[in-house]
Amino acid sequence: MQNIVILISGRGSNFEAILRTSREENWESACNARIAAVISNRPQAAGLDIARAAGIEAVAMDHKAYDSREAFEAELADIISRYDPAVIVLAGFMRVLTEGFVSRFEGKILNIHPALLPLFPGLNTHQRAIDAGCRVHGSTVHFVTAVLDGGSIIGQAVVPVLPSDDADALAHRSLVYEHQLYPKCVRAILEGRVRCEDGRTVCNDETARSLTIFGC
Q1: With a threshold of 0.85, does the pTM exceed it?
Q2: Could you tell me if 33 and 86 are in contact, meaning their C-beta atoms sit under 8 angstroms apart?
Q3: Taking Cα atoms as reference points, which of 171, 93, 181 lies closest to residue 142?
Q4: Are 30 and 51 a contacting pair, CB within 8 Å?
Q5: Which residues are marked as active site?
Q6: pLDDT digits over 78-133, tens only?
Q7: What is the DSSP annotation of 176-196?
Q8: Other CB atoms closer than 10 Å to residue 78's CB: what's the count?
Q9: Were both Cys, which of 34, 58, 88, 209 would link to 48 (CB 3.0–4.6 Å)?
């Protein structure tokens, strides 16, 4: 069985989307995979209760209880390793991971960023897209590297930026398609249709098309 470990800091709406899709598509049978654990750096994260209700191991790790970022990450890495993960999914995990942590799980960590990378890495992406006069915006699933939002792209969801949009409206429109994109990308990794080689994403044309979503 291929194990998925999901890291969250709050409710984890993308975790919920992955959980829902994994059940609807019966991933345990279809691709020999399951969500083995959900880990949060915030003990009160609502996503932990969602995991427990779903019968998934929920682990709370308060990052404030550790003397350093490195100490927190060392224990986090040890806990993750117990599940021998095929993929580690960041779903609203509000911690920047160090190079040492990332290198330990190279090619296995995924993140979703609320912009069409390489445009607008970092924060406040929706307002920045509006301010730049973009006509399209969206979200990107990518492999995680030591460079913030700099890993190779796996899939993207694209939505129009409308003249009436503010940041909240644009964020809401994008989130609908995030919840479709992320599960597709996780499953493609589990099925071996996508992999990272020498810092680049490798897949065939059919898979690339399936991981490109055009919203409205």
Answers
A1: yes
A2: yes
A3: 181
A4: no
A5: 113
A6: 999 999 999 999 999 999 999 999 999 999 999 999 999 999 999 999 999 999 99
A7: HHHHHHHHHHHHHHHTTS-EE
A8: 10
A9: 58
